[in-house]
Every structure is written in C-alpha cells, then in structure tokens.
Amino acid sequence: MDTRTFDALTESMKSAYVAGLSEGAVPRPVIMPLVRGQLVGLIWLRPVKTGQDALTAIASLSNIAAAACADEVVLAWETHDVATACELPITGPAPCLNMVHATTDGHTLHQFPYTESVPANRPEGSAAVEPHWQPAPDPQPGGTLVPPVQAAIDYAFTPIELDHPSPFGVTVVLMEEDGYSLRLTEAFAL
Q1: End-to-end CA distance of the chain
Q2: 3-state DSSP: the chain helix, strand, coil percent, rounded to 5?
Q3: Which tens digits make up the pLDDT trace of 118-145?
Q4: Fewer CB within 10 Å, N or C, the chain?
Q5: What is the C-alpha R_g of the chain?
Q6: CA-CA distances (angstroms) from residue 80 to 67, 86, 92, 113?
Q7: How many alpha carbons fall within 13 Å on the CB side of residue 29?
C-alpha cells in the first residue's frame, strides 16, 4: 500500500472519530481489506456482548478479507473500547485510535493518541467530547496487538473454503445477517 492510500484511510478514521465522539461514542472496530492495492470496502464490528462474544466478533472481521483473497488489510480500533468489550487489560496509550497495516509478510502498528475535551456548546446530558490529537509515536513494525486484533490479522490471510460458487458473495450476506455493517467499494459490490 502506498503512503497516500494509508494516509487517506488514516484521515478517514480520524474524521470518523471526531464525528463519533461528538455523538458520545467511538466508532466500532473496522477492517479495510485490499486486493492488489484496491480497497474492497469497510466492514464494521457488529453489536457485541462483553467478553467472549466481543473477542470472537472482532476476530471474525477477517472473514470478508479472507473471502476476497485480500493481500493486505488495515484494521482500526480504539484502545479502551476494545479492552473493555473483550475484558482485557488496557495496553498502550488510551484513549487512542490504533491502526494496523498487515500483509502476509507482517504488520505495522500505528497509534494516534488523543485527549478528550468537552465542547463549549455541548447540550446538557450529552456525552459528546472532542478529540485533540497528540503527537503519534513512530510506527511499530511487528508491534504487539491485542489478541482479537491479532487473530483477525492472522485469519484475514487464511483462505475461506466454501463449497459455493461465490464464496465472497455468500460471506458478505452471512456477515450482514450477523449484524456487521459493510460498505463495499463499487468494484466489489454485489
């Protein structure tokens, strides 16, 4: 993936965080698979129950990447949000937008820490906050990932073997039925 594409995905995720936090919530984890440099789409985590369900659901984000035979993926998540949902200890900066870029040759972790402040015009009773991006640490080749994200990266490059004429199409349908939100690019839309 070229730097321009990664930077565009990063800015898109930062914008999603600004919008989400203004409404009182961080965006759910999202995976962005690519095939030969072309974005397949964005797949957001389905609603989850705390614990094992969250662990499994995050790892299952990989299904669409595997079905598309992705050769690289970017996965984004918020440190505190995933740790809480999965009942894991918080590791690394928090709050923090994390993005991992992975290929079959390895991965690089990018972290974008932020602080939260209350907007001056916040409606009473609202949970809205504004992120203020802090200096980002250097990218970490092979950086430590939380277990469900590591599993999603590992499984993203494991081909799905389905006895179906359209493994990608059936995977899209099944993920949508499970509650994942998918926005496929035109080239991969069904």
Answers
A1: 24
A2: 35, 25, 40
A3: 766 666 666 678 889 999 999 999 999 9
A4: C
A5: 16
A6: 29, 10, 9, 11
A7: 34
